[in-house]
Amino acid sequence: MTPLLSVQDLSKMYGGHIGCKDVSFDLYPGEVMGIVGESGSGKSTLLNCMAGHLVPDAGQVVFDTRAEGPQDTVTMSEPERRMLGRTDWAFVHQHARDGLRMGVSAGGNVGERLMAVGARHYGDIRATATDWLERVEIDAGRIDDRPTTFSGGMQQRLQIARNLVTGPRLVFMDEPTGGLDVSVQARLLDLLRGLVRDMGLSAVIVTHDLAVVRLLADRLMVMKSGHVVEQGLTDQVLDDPQHGYTQLLVSSVLQV
Amino acid sequence: MTENAYNFAYLDEQTKRMIRRAILKGLAIPGYQVPFASREMPMPYGWGTGGVQVSAAVLTPEDRFKVIDQGADDTTNAVSIRSFFQRTAGVATTTHTQEATVIQTRHRIPEEPLNEGQILVYQVPIPEPLRFLEPRETETRKMHALEEYGLMHVKLYEDIARHGHIATAYAYPVKVEGRYVMDPSPIPKFDNPKMSGNAAIQLFGAGREQRIYALPPYTQVVSLDFEDHPFEASKADHPCGLCGADDSYLDEVIVDDAGGRMFVCSDTDFCDARQSAGFKGKDAA
Amino acid sequence: MIEIENVSKTFTLHNQGGTVIHVMKGASVSVASGECVALTGASGAGKSTLMRMIYGNYRAASGRILVGGVDVSCAAPREIIALRRTVLGYVSQFLRVVPRVPTLDVVAEPLRAVGVSAQEAEVRATELLRQLNIPETLWGLSPTTFSGGEQQRVNIARGFAYPYPALLLDEPTASLDAHNREVVLSLIEDAKARGAAIVGIFHDEAARDRICDRVIDVTGFTPARAA
């Protein structure tokens, strides 16, 4: 089987400081991979390099495109990469405000990606947007309201709907449940699990919340100072951590 | 000394050259916004400094100049700009669309079809049609470069969602020759179809924003829309009260303190010409 | 179905002076389809450790652990995930679920994960919950708030939703009353009858005697403690 995403020796420096260094892994269709590590460990840098938001200094990010098979997205032309960004890729930001257009209605937010790929029938766009609002458990009656009137959890769900409406195959998530109430987090996690399963999505999730990765991720990568110190099956890494840093991380979680 | 203290048409020749280069580039890439080094003009921004600079750059001593503001030749703005060029260029002026070689306009396209050899200069407040939804100039330029125009339809979507129809009535976005999406300046959407296939050269100048763009003669200009909400060049559903025309764009005028009103052609030259030819509307004296 | 060959396990505590703890050595167990093997030994002897290694939850230090032909000790994560989806089931003592998910969905999930329709999965989940005497009024609620015994039964229902050819059972009858214990034992017997290879930990000796074909004392795999 061809990996959906194959990252090879990806490195990014910030001057003399390491962003991330020599990161390699393969992500297969339907797999969800978590990336954990403390603040400044390079996990967000890595995610942004993969998603094309940052230009890596070295390495490849090979994506199995629908039309032409595996392509290095680092060296592909910017129009192609941006096209991927609004079709087969999705990016869920930690802060919904970064991923939504706050001055545009919920329906317009969800419809944007459809219109970006050529949808020109208002009625169809609206019907699809309505369907997606319901899928992320937002009352369809709110379709013409702006996200500024939504709660944090609703905004995050709207961001997810906006991203998934074009049926992407790969979703990048940066702390998707960060900053949300615990009860809202659970609801979002359940929603994401269902969508991942039903749409056969692959995902890369950056978080510092070990409970989140245990519930969402099949695989886990642990980062420290820009390096991957350990990777493997999520529950194996969490329950039988091999690296000292992972052991420290796991044992530092407060029990409730 | 005073007679020669000012250059022809106010701007120095180097500035005109710079502006003409921008205009030529704009004509070569219809709908593309060309940056230019906008000069301080002896009038405030918003009063047509972009249009005035473009007019100054294209005027020659043989030209006959017309200025309209909301279709009218006799409003403050039109009168001021006309007299500005009378003084600084000494060119002939006119109010007749047919006689003019250069027409500077704010918010309208004349009703009478323009001909080859004529130049229509638009005053533009905000040249960037995408700015409404994407405030970052770096991003909008990239979107133009990569033809990522989905966002333009989001604006129209929002219109329909809020009003049940595309409520944008002026500055209605257009696509030029299937490539660049362009803001036609705040003309009523009634005028949009006149831009397409027009025999005249159409130049757009935004002074504060320092952008010039252009449509060469006979350029295809299509107003954006949805399949199920097609573009409509709408106007007030009345005939002109003075000349009786039912195919011209109308201004609504309040005529007394009791809410009485009348609809009259916004294009004063068009209306005058019709009245001279004997057409009469119901409110004509 | 399950072949464990010469497996050892160590824990290295990097944050406690790099202490290396040897917990298992030379473990070899073979379980055929339709066979049930009980692991015994004193607390701390390594029963759970061995179970966890079979499930891929703990990483073996050496040796081979073949489950349905896949060597769990060195398989890629996605191979283990595929194995857990369709070959190897695990009923642990602890229920670990997303907080607000209804019990019915928790039980149906293993079926949904292999592409069974929502409706069909629900039918099977309903059947199991009814069999295990979980009151219907609780089906729509999250099991996180249930009593220990109820959680245990939900866990069992979930573990038996999909007919895995290999099953790991960690104290399946603990904290159950006689009636429910009987239900669980018959579920295990049914699984055996359809050919599942089962490895289990049973403190309930009567249950062990009734279900298991063989007993393996893991004390034999415990390395001699350094003095």
UniProtKB/TrEMBL annotation, chain A:
Pfam families: ABC_tran
Protein name as catalogued: Putative phosphonate transport system ATP-binding protein
Record keywords: ATP-binding, Nucleotide-binding
SMART domains noted in UniProt: AAA
Organism: Sagittula marina
Gene Ontology MF annotations: ATP binding; ATP hydrolysis activity
All copies of domain ABC transporter, residue ranges: 5-250
GO biological process: organic phosphonate catabolic process
NCBIfam families, alphabetized: CP_lyasePhnK
Automatic annotation (TrEMBL), chain B:
UniProt keyword terms in alphabetical order: 4Fe-4S, Iron, Iron-sulfur, Lyase, Metal-binding, S-adenosyl-L-methionine
InterPro entries according to UniProt: PhnJ
Organism expressing this protein natively: Sagittula marina
Pfam families registered for this protein in UniProt: PhnJ
Protein name, entry field: Alpha-D-ribose 1-methylphosphonate 5-phosphate C-P lyase
Domain of life of the organism encoding this protein: Bacteria
Keyword Metal-binding: yes
UniProt EC number: 4.7.1.1
Keyword Kinase annotated: no
Family, as annotated: Belongs to the PhnJ family.
Entry function: Catalyzes the breakage of the C-P bond in alpha-D-ribose 1-methylphosphonate 5-phosphate (PRPn) forming alpha-D-ribose.
Signal peptide: none
MF annotations from Gene Ontology: 4 iron, 4 sulfur cluster binding; alpha-D-ribose 1-methylphosphonate 5-phosphate C-P-lyase activity; metal ion binding
Gene Ontology BP annotations: organic phosphonate catabolic process
Reaction(s) catalysed (UniProt annotation): alpha-D-ribose 1-methylphosphonate 5-phosphate + AH2 + S-adenosyl-L-methionine = alpha-D-ribose 1,2-cyclic phosphate 5-phosphate + methane + 5'-deoxyadenosine + L-methionine + A + H(+)
UniProtKB/TrEMBL annotation, chain C:
UniProt xrefs under SUPFAM superfamilies: P-loop containing nucleoside triphosphate hydrolases
Domain ABC transporter: 2-226
Cell inner membrane is among the record's keywords: no
Top-rank EC class of the record's enzyme: transferase
GO molecular function, one term: ATP hydrolysis activity
Pfam short name (any one): ABC_tran
Keyword Magnesium in annotation: no
EC number annotated for this UniProt entry: 2.7.8.37
Keyword annotations from UniProtKB, A to Z: ATP-binding, Nucleotide-binding, Transferase
Gene3D superfamilies in the record: P-loop containing nucleotide triphosphate hydrolases
Stated family: Belongs to the ABC transporter superfamily.
Protein name: Alpha-D-ribose 1-methylphosphonate 5-triphosphate synthase subunit PhnL
Organism: Sagittula marina
Lineage: Bacteria, Pseudomonadati, Pseudomonadota, Alphaproteobacteria, Rhodobacterales
